[in-house]
Amino acid sequence: MSNLDLKPPTTVCGGRTDVAAQPVRDLLAGKDVPLGESTVVRRLLPNLGRRMVGAWCFVDHYGPDDIADEPGMQVPPHPHIGLQTVSWLHEGEVLHRDSLGSKQTLRPGQLGLMTSGRAIAHSEESPREHARLLHGAQLWVALPDEHRHTEPRWEHHTELPRVTGGGGLSATVILGELDGARSPGTTFTPLMGADITLAAGTDTRLPVHPDFEYAALTMSGEAEVDGVRLAPGSLLYLGCGRTELPLRADVDSAFMLLGGEPFEERIVMWWNFVGRSQQDIEQARADWMNTTRFGEVHGYDGPRLPAPMLPSTPLKPRGRTR
């Protein structure tokens, strides 16, 4: 997915200085951002209060939207470097195309994982004939320096491991490992992502890694995570230091649990690029505008997305939080 801001801020983040080394409960509000022709997303990372959770550096939640009489998601071809995109649906379909020649329709419960590496371009759209509702999340994972120039790749996983717990918990492991179950998706840093459903009346505890920092993104219902009741579209940052996570639900609920070892490197994120310096970003923008390096996305009905203008001010290093 693209960041379609016309004036995207330049963000420098990463490093361990500001990681909460103990459990916390910081509730972060999202910001509504237009995406394409008819989709509005709630942007939860980067946030005024936090820029990363492990290697997770970008989180958009969208829907559920009634798109029966709308074109739905329409994101033109756009570039990425230095990151992975994670596409996850609860309802609807999204058609992915990329400059490797991949063409894949994603459906609920399937993992779409794109590793941009040195350079890739892709588009995302609702198929011409699509379901009435569209609901999901799009996330980015920052690649560590030793892998950020790797060859781009696309992965589509339809069979993902599940974890079940007493009292109505069921979890699909999207990336990494949870309670002994491991996703087939490729990762480059210690991290995890899971889609967790809680049946009404659930009161349980989920084992977690004490060295990981975690956040919970509510998708539907009103899950109670470590004593905090979460409305859909909210993100609760949990810090590190837990060995288990208390979970409750009075109604059927679903949330995504994102976690990982705090990302040690400092990164620069601007528009759809993750680099290590302003020079990285400037070069990637120039290459996209000059139609080099990223390849072509074939089949999308419309022009590719032009890059915004770079900010006039130089980068100012900042930490993980503001």
Automatic annotation (TrEMBL):
The family database entries (InterPro entries) matched by this protein are listed as:
Pirin, Pirin_C_dom, Pirin_N_dom, RmlC-like_jellyroll, RmlC_Cupin_sf
Q: Where is this region: Disordered?
A: 303-322
* Top-level taxon of origin: Bacteria
Mention any Pfam family matching this sequence. Pirin_C
Q: The Pirin C-terminal domain covers which part of the protein?
A: 194-291
Q: What sequence ranges are listed for the domain Pirin N-terminal?
A: 45-141
Tell me which family the UniProt entry assigns to this protein. Answer: Belongs to the pirin family.
- Give the PANTHER family listed for this entry: PIRIN, PIRIN-RELATED
Name of the featured protein: Pirin family protein
Organism of derivation:
Streptomyces pactum
